[in-house]
Amino acid sequence: MALPGGPGVEVVVVHPVAPVPRTVPEWEAGVGTLPPAPSSGPPRILAGDFNATLDHAVFRRLLDTGYTDAAAATGQGLVPTWPMRRLPPLVAIDHVLTDSRAGAVAVQIHDVPGSDHRALFADLRVRS
């Protein structure tokens, strides 16, 4: 993605399979193959339905490569995003991750009619 007057940014959309008992190995492999946070090249943002909470070990290993969770960084990390068909939603499985060259200024979570997820909006600043 090109930013006006700034560096290009790589945006990776994420949606591994749900970790139900028969697909846990596939889910772990899907999250485990996401690219680590880069230290050079364009800044990278990973965003989407990770089907993982901050307490999943495979998700924490991804964070340990150098990503920051936008919601957690702004005090919103435990605000649930799923499932919307059950009120209140129970878990925060949707995330926006930034490498060290970007960061969240604010995060908002919105109900989306007809969706089983709440929308996570992250206001990000990318350093050049």
Tell me about this structure:
The chain is of the alpha+beta class. The chain has one domain: Deoxyribonuclease I, Chain A, CATH 3.60.10. It contains 3 helices and 6 strands, in the order βαβαβαβββ. The strands form 2 sheets. It has a 4-stranded mixed beta sheet with strand order 1-2-4-3. It has a two-stranded antiparallel sheet with strand order 5-6. It is globular and about 45 Å long. It starts with 9 loop residues before the first strand and ends with a strand.
The average pLDDT is 94
Domain unit count: 1
Question: How are strands sequenced across the largest beta sheet?
Answer: 1-2-4-3
- CA gyration radius, whole angstroms: 15 Å
- Tell me about the largest β-sheet: 4 strands, mixed
The oligomeric state of the chains shown is single chain
Shape: globular
Distance between the termini: 14 Å
List the helices and strands and how they pair.
Layout: E1 10-14, H1 24-32, E2 44-49, H2 57-63, E3 68-69, H3 70-73, E4 94-98, E5 102-110, E6 119-126
Parallel strand pairs: 1-2
Antiparallel strand pairs: 2-4, 3-4, 5-6
Describe this protein with a few key phrases.
128 residues; alpha+beta; Deoxyribonuclease I, Chain A; 4-stranded mixed β-sheet; two-stranded antiparallel sheet
TL;DR?
The chain is α+β, with helices and mostly antiparallel strands.
